[in-house]
Amino acid sequence: MVTRENIDQKFSLISVYDKRKLKYLCNSLEKHKYKFISTGSTCKKIRSLGFKCIELSDITGFKEILDGRVKTISHKIYGSILYKRKNIKHIKEFKELKIPKIDIVIINLYPFKKYSKESDKTKTIEMIDIGGPSLIRAASKNYLDITIITTISHYSNLVKNLDKNLGCTDLNFRKKMATQSFKLTSEYDQLIYKWFLEKNDQNDIISLKYGENPNQKSFIKNKKMRSILQYQISGKQISFNNIIDIDSGYKCLTEFNEPTCVIVKHTNPCGVSSTNNIEKSFINAFNSDPKSAFGGIVFLNRKVSKRLSEKISRFFFEVIVAPDFENGALEILKKKKNLILLKIKKIKNIRYNTRSTIFGDITQDENNLKINKKFLSLVTSKSAPDKSIQDIIFATKVAKHLKSNAIVLAKNKQTIGIGSGQTNRIDALTSAVKRMKKNFNYKNFVCSSDGFFPFTDSINYLNKNNCKIIAQPSGSINDKKIIEFALKNKISLYFLKNRLFKH
Q1: Alpha carbon distances (Å) from 14 to 104, 124, 278, 316, 320
Q2: Spatial CB neighbours of 370, under 8 Å, sequence gap ≥ 6
Q3: Domain ranges of the chain
Q4: CATH T-level fold of 232-367
Q5: Which of 11, 116, 370, 475 has the fewest CB atoms lying closer than 10 Å?
């Protein structure tokens, strides 16, 4: 029972699922004159160990209900935990409650992670702790006055701190415990969130903010697939357009094994670079077309270091995708609250590609062709140096992921000029050359085209701009004329094994 005598004593609220080491804990707390308040099953266990314990329902005035689903939610309990000990108004209001003063809160949560693998969803849902996280948050918020302990491994630390401070805890200890407790509840909620995304049928369909434009409603279906939201570790809500861009850019990134950066804008790569260093690859990819990179999406196939994050954070991007981030890198990038960060180590390639049309859904095999030396066939007498062949392979990998008509100019495994989405190939080519001249003005670069050049005007234009190594698919009625022009002008011309259209 609650009496006037015990209102002025020190109390510890204990409510734990895991009841190991309770005797050790209670012995230590009792030595420092703490009394115990507890919930049903924990209270019974404490009493069975030989200690006196007030049942929480004696303080709140109501018994546990709904099979224990509701037991700690009470203004009296939270009043005792949350009132500020040096606030005169708070002290007055607390005294009117006529309840014990709780100084230490010891909670461990239902083991949701352990039960999250259960096939029976009902069992898993019952392991979602409600009162525990709320008590932890309340005690942590008031760490200036309250000590919160959330794991058995911290019992000994609590005991040492009480011994050191004559039955009290010091501020540094309370702050440290509060920090770890907020981390615990954050991870606990994240675990539940991910489980709902993976296991609950109603979450196969997730509403998005809107579609390509604000007037269009949109959603994503994740049937038998991991939700993109489960890869997100920071930033604003992912949009319809973000998902389309991320899908496009990630597929392009998977073409490369060496440290590579791909920057995408409106589904098209606008800057790509492969080097022996991911930081250098990012700088090269950005410099490929800084104007287009503004507001784009950055893809990296190596861990993001603190140093690289500092370089990335100088510019405006919508999304950063990488297999991992150093802690220091996350601290820097998370300062940009709207910047979406996705941690994606590997996603299996899809087998089919489906699109909706007004005539019905159309499906095709996904274009999973591997582009390497075997994909190229020399059709002129002059072969290119091995380094230039590697550039041709690099450029062709990028061209595969551009909207047709697509042209990629490259040098040293860096895109230096891109033309995409044009209604004719010569316009795509002139656009690529124009960008190259603006940003680099190189000579002796390579060119790869996703489709054949129908006339000699394109190859003639490249020749005039000092491009002597060209790759294109065959299939034009003018293939012979293209080859003859290349031979006459000492151009290394390669035919690609397949056309690489992307509509």
Answers
A1: 8, 24, 50, 49, 43
A2: none
A3: 4-199, 232-367, 369-496
A4: Cytidine Deaminase; domain 2 (3.40.140)
A5: 370
Compute the residue count for the chain: 503
Q: Say how far residue 34 (Cα) sits from the centre of its chain.
A: 45
pLDDT in tens, 381-423: 999 999 999 999 999 999 999 999 999 999 999 999 999 999 9
User: Is position 141 annotated as part of the catalytic site?
Assistant: yes
Residue carrying structure tokens 């401070």: 165
CB contact at 8 A, 329 and 233: no
Cβ atoms of 274 and 260 closer than 8 Å: yes
- Residue 290 token pair: 């800084």
Q: Which of 141, 209, 382, 403 is catalytic?
A: 141
> How far apart are the C-alpha atoms of 300 and 279, rounded to whole Å?
9
What is the distance in angstroms between the CA of the first residue and the CA of the last residue of the chain? 76
Report which secondary-structure segment, H or E, holds 35: strand 34-38
154 is catalytic: no
Count other Cβ atoms within 10 Å, centred on residue 190. Answer: 12
Q: How far apart are CA 366 and CA 376, in angstroms?
A: 21
Q: pTM of this prediction? A: 0.64
What ranges make up the beta strands (E) of 109-204?
147-149
Instruction: Choose the catalytic residue: 10, 199, 266, 306.
Output: 266
pLDDT per residue as tens digits for the range 258-272: 999 999 999 999 999
Beta strand 205-208 with 218-221: parallel, antiparallel or unpaired? antiparallel
Q: Do domains 232-367 and 369-496 have the same CATH topology?
A: yes
CA distance 365 to 67: 53
